[in-house]
Amino acid sequence: xxxxxxxxxxSCCGMGDFRPRTVWLGHPxxxxxxxxxxxxxxxxxxxxxxxxxxxxxxxxxxFNLYFLLLACSQFVNELRLGALYTYWVPLxxxxxxxxxxxAVEEIRCFLRDKEVNSQIYxxxxxxxxxxxxxxxxxxxxxxxxxxxxxxxxxxxxLRTSExxxxxxxxxxxxxxxxxxxxxxxxxxxxxxxxxxDLLQIRSYVYxxxxxxxxxxxxxxxxxxxxxPPVNESLSIENTLWASTVIASGTVVGVVIYTGxxxxxxxxxxxxxHKIGLFDLEVNCLTKILFGALVVVSLVMVALQHxxxxxxxxxxxxxxxxxxxxxxxxxxxxDMGKMVFSWMIKKDAKIPGTVVRASTIPEQLGxxxxxxxxxxxxxxxxxxxxxxxxxxxxxxxxxxxxxxxSHVFSAYTQPPHDAPASRAPAATKVRKTISSRVHxxxxxxxxxxxxxxxxxxxxVTDQAEAEQxxxxxxxxxxxxxxxxxxxxxxxxxVGLTLVGRDQSSMQLRTPSGQILNFTILQIFPFTYESKRMxxxxxxxxxxxITFYMKGADVVMAGIVQYNDWLEEECGNMxxxxxxxxxxxxxxxxxxxxxxxxxxxxxxxxxVHDRSLKVATVxxxxxxxxxxxxxxxxxxxxxxxxxxxxxxxRNAGIKVWMLTGDKLETATCTAKNAHLVTRNQDVHVFRPxxxxxxxxxxxxxxxxxxxxxxxxxxDSLEVCLKFYEYEFMELACQCPAVVCCRCAPTQKAQIxxxxxxxxxxxxxxxxxxxxxxxMIQEADCGVGVxxxxxxxxSLAADFSVTQFKHLxxxxxxxxxxxxxxxxxxxxxxxxxxxxxxxMQAVFSSVFYFASVPLYQGFLIxxxxxxxxxxxxxxxxxxxxxxxxxxxxxxxxxxxxxxxRPLSFKxxxxxxxxxxxxxxxxxxxxxxxxxxEFVHIVAISFTSLILTELLMVALTIxxxxxxxxxxxxxxxxxxxxxxxxxxxxIDVYFIATLSFVWKVxxxxxxxxLPLYILKYLRRRFSPPSYxxxxx
Length: 1028
Known about the structure:
Blueprint: E1 21-24, H1 50-59, H2 62-73, H3 85-117, E2 120-125, E3 128-133, E4 142-145, E5 154-160, E6 167-170, H4 172-175, E7 181-183, H5 187-190, E8 203-207, E9 219-223, E10 230-234, E11 239-240, E12 245-246, E13 251-257, H6 263-266, H7 277-303, H8 310-320, H9 328-346, E14 354-355, E15 367-372, E16 379-389, E17 394-395, H10 400-412, H11 424-428, H12 433-446, E18 451-454, H13 462-468, E19 474-477, H14 481-492, E20 496-500, E21 504-508, E22 514-523, E23 531-538, E24 544-550, H15 552-555, H16 565-574, E25 578-587, H17 589-604, H18 609-620, E26 625-636, H19 640-649, E27 653-657, H20 662-671, E28 680-683, H21 690-701, E29 706-711, H22 712-732, E30 735-739, H23 743-757, E31 760-765, H24 771-776, E32 779-783, H25 790-794, E33 797-799, H26 804-844, H27 855-862, H28 867-871, H29 881-886, H30 889-894, H31 902-926, H32 931-953, H33 959-975, H34 985-988, H35 991-1018, H36 1022-1027
Parallel strand pairs: 15-27, 15-31, 27-30, 28-29, 29-30, 31-32, 32-33
Antiparallel strand pairs: 1-8, 2-3, 2-4, 4-13, 5-11, 5-13, 6-7, 6-12, 8-9, 9-10, 14-33, 16-17, 16-26, 18-19, 20-21, 21-22, 22-23, 23-24, 24-25, 25-26
Helix pairs in contact: 1-3, 3-9, 7-8, 7-26, 9-26, 10-12, 12-14, 17-18, 19-26, 21-22, 22-23, 26-31, 26-32, 31-32, 31-35, 32-33, 32-35
């Protein structure tokens, strides 16, 4: 995603430097500076730069520039060798095809951007609520965003329709984190009676200059006409960044940043123009051919002893042998790429796949590293409750009805013993299974941050649904999908969360009774503490209980001694479940009052506040009663495991880069078998200094065949001080997991990997936070997720599911690369053959710079006479697609780059020299009287040789290939009638002509057929063993 620049000199328009701003609510006209338009633009060119840009990109290749100079030289009389069209027609054809292809891609891109920029939003204005396009939104506008709508620009949150005065945001398009974020409106504006009052008050927001940090914001809100004037500080909690989605209620915000100043845009790098490795290799070969051309021309002039105007002779020879560098190569390869792209789109086994960059399909055949996002790419981002473990007994998905009956019995039988708090001796007695299950379920139903919300469903309206706790209208909202899955599970076993506000919670029992709990304190989950706690008072009994849940690493030291926690956590983690440990502690009124006094005191301190608060909470977190373990699974996308298995067997190393937490990322890596069962996992300890990084790298160096898990912060430290050492170690790992990665960090890892290893990397992602990585990689694949299309629009290839990646690489990538390699070498062979014949001809006729074939023969040779059979090589395949999928090891062969190498190139050069010499010398030996006969014999033999060579190269025949061969032969025979100025038509009808051509063609082709047979017999390639 790249915002459009208004002009090339935007910096002097005052838009180059970012500055803080004062934004008046609802008054965009009161701005102090010019702000960029709120448009998304992924195009490479605009209307004026299109033609110059495309031509520049074509002629910056040595290859095309050479042909342009060649064609221009024909305007000089001394250098002219024949008709002008022999040079200009092929060049014009090449350029037209390229321009049309680029134009189609640009138009598609324009339409995609237009779709996003045309999304309609509501804007508050003095005329009431008006509709405005996303591209028409300005800094200072008051925009209304509905539930499940994308936030169109960076805004400050002013009002919400939610009763609890807050809203949830889905941010996975921005930072890759699955948990919803709680956002709070500005208190002053939330208190206003209606949204329209926002326009009646005199108020403004002061915002810091735009920057890249999506997790922080500094600003203030000021209302001038208040008495006294109101000042409120603004932080990240009051922001709504673009590319996030509103998950609850309807919100009103004031726009503070647009266009290129958006946080999401500043976190994406500009797309680079990708040039495939294959194209660079072909470019290298054409330079070698050009070198050969110069050498041959110099040799010819040297053999003339540099007589007369020899420098002109050099130019004439350069033009005469210009066929050595084939102009049709570029056209054939570009048209081949279009065919490969079409085949990918039309493959019924990977429906919905889109090719956005049709210039690099060969890259898919040579990927060494695959870097994938986690959330939404490998996983579905849907949590399912899988296991409840009580130490002595565990309940899986198939035994949930037992849990249900225990919960039911707990609430229907009369209480048979006194509450635990009043009789301490009772806790020592081993509780019955039924009461333990009930305790565990109740704890899970209470220790969370979930709010039930009621929506009208057509039958009942919102107020009525809220009053009666209508099941059909209720949805749960929380910052984490894990929490929602736990609460949904307690509902399924009979204990339902029906209501919640800031200070109380209501649960409904299986018998329909409502249990009321007062929330006394809540300790939210943080990344550092890895746990959350809540203190509640049961209104019916007055009992105060401290409930807590958290990761096993921190909870192990908090709960009472037991012998099963560690082992069972390990077992559940190995199954790929996210494990939470749930515990409780009963408090007396005195204990709670004492705690509260100390807690309030700690919160008032100015110095080391967070440390003091943590210390007070920790005084409660001792000797807690372990209730249960819960196991939740983030469901994987379909067929992720077999796909990763295929990629691993193909020699591709898979790295997972995610913005999610370390535990979650490790869990998913094991669950998806990214890390195999017998592999060790080395979790890189958090490091902040150079010495710590050094020690940790040394510890890691001692491990062998071990997967690496590292967080973004530690990674940054390692790359700062030990970039080379770290990348060297990481590249040797069978798998790498980087968690808590910022979007720009993902791109940095891709770039380093490509630079350090020199190998091709492919990046796969589904969210806006993956765009930078996708654009940086040699080959970017976007997965069309539920979270929008941002990644798939920026990618080179777009798939609907991760599992399609296997076929995209193993079948289409492999075929594209092998076919392009065969096609390019054949086109080179075709042009070298005719150049060899020209060289032999000139040598025999005293090194004269006279062309052997004139005008149409030259153009016809590389077009209608041989074009179709040669191009039909794009349909060739060595193995069926099922075999390629079954034996991914075949893909590994391609990573060495053998289909197109100096060795194969040299073999084709030798074949061309052999065949060209045989045909020319044969024609010179066998012709009798007329020079025209030489042309007839040699040209016919040349065409037949080419057609036979195509037949020799093909591995799997397709009906179109046979049609192409016959069509070309028919075209040649039919055109002989018009070629009487070059070829003696009466001579062709004689028997003498027929036997001479047959002998020459057999001598040029038969030895190669025999060699191919012997090679397949005694040294068959790997794929032939699978097809036989």
